[in-house]
Write a structure and sequence with these properties.
Helix content is 0%, strand content 60%. The protein has 119 residues and is mostly beta strands. Strands 2, 4, 5, 6, 9, 10 and 11 form a seven-stranded mixed sheet that branches. Strands 1-3-8-7 form a four-stranded antiparallel sheet, with no helix packed on it. A hairpin with a 6-residue loop joins strand 4 and strand 5. The chain is globular.
Length: 119
């Protein structure tokens, strides 16, 4: 059983910043990749950022230069620093982990945290 617990969402004004955090726990041996996706009402879930265990990162153009992902391998945590936020960043943000357990590799998801960018 693997759990991902997110924290740090909320209401922020346009141009503001916030930091999302996610902690993975349970019987997971390794996590080659962790990341964040988001889903706005009426839209498909989309990648926000991802990071490998070696520190390689990937961002879509929509957030590049504004968002920064980081992780602590020893603690199985991942963070997303979001800056210069825009109303279009409003969405539910989901933490995800691609990890290995006794049953092999699987993708796990957190419950989601709401981020609202509004004045």
């Amino acid at each position: 059983q693997v759990q991902l617990v997110e924290s740090g969402g909320g209401l922020v004004q346009p141009g503001g910043s916030l930091r999302l955090s996610c902690a993975a726990s349970g019987s997971i041996f390794s996590i080659p990749e962790m990341g964040w996706y988001r889903q706005a009402p009426g839209k498909q879930r989309e990648l926000v950022a991802r990071i490998t265990s070696s520190g390689s990162t990937d961002y879509p153009d929509s957030v590049k230069g504004r968002f920064t992902i980081s992780r602590d391998n020893a603690k199985n945590t991942v963070h997303l620093q979001a800056s210069s936020l825009k109303p279009e960043d409003t969405a539910v943000y989901y933490c995800t982990a691609w990890g290995r357990t006794t049953t092999g590799f699987n993708r796990y998801w957190g419950q989601g945290t709401q981020v609202t960018v509004s004045s």
